[in-house]
Amino acid sequence: MQKTIWIAALGLAVAGCSPETSAPVVTTPAAEAVAPPAAMPDMAMSAATPAAGPITSTGKIVAVDAVSGGVTLNHQAIPEVKWDAMTMGFTVADPTMLKDLKVGDMVSFDLQSATEPTKISRITKQ
Ligand SMILES: [Cu+2]
After folding, report:
1. How far is ligand 1, taken at its centre, from the CA of residue 46, in Å?
2. Per-residue pLDDT band at 48 (split at 50, 70, 90)
3. Are residues 72 and 119 in the same domain?
4. Helix/strand number for the chain, H first, E second
5. What are the pLDDT digits (tens) for 10-20?
6. Which of 40, 58, 87, 120 is the most exposed place for a label (fewest CB within 10 A)?
């Protein structure tokens, strides 16, 4: 199911953070029938993995609050969630993850998942 949804999502036009309003949201098993056959099942499987698990990206810290666990990042484009490069706010899983980070630091981070993209499960200085 996840794989099918992801393949369908890849076919849609890339558009910032805003969801594709004109495209149907694929949520039913019937969608399996319209998915193109995977010529290389192993590769298709690994391509689908990032949508289900952590999505790694990089960016620069614009603002950080180690007390509340909020961090604003100017992140690079993140195709897994169809985001262009932008500045936006995130929440870290544990505020102590931010204690050694400051504004201007370049960081590598993991988004929790495609369904919880504003939650950061890992963030480290580059
Ligand atoms: Cu964004």
Report:
1. 23
2. very low
3. yes
4. 2, 5
5. 333 344 454 44
6. 40
User: What's the CA-to-centroid distance between 31 and ligand 1, angstroms?
Assistant: 28
C-alpha 63 to ligand 1 mean position (Å): 15
Domain extent, residue 28, equals 2-52
Rounded to 5°, the CA angle 45-51-54 comes to 110
Query: Does 42 lie in the same domain as 14?
Result: yes
Domain of 100: which CATH number?
A: 2.40.50.320
For residues 53 and 36, what is the distance between their CA atoms, to the nearest angstrom? 23
Q: What is the pTM of this model?
A: 0.61
The reply to whether 115 and 68 lie within a common domain is: yes
Lowest mean pLDDT among 33-37, 109-113, 115-119: 33-37
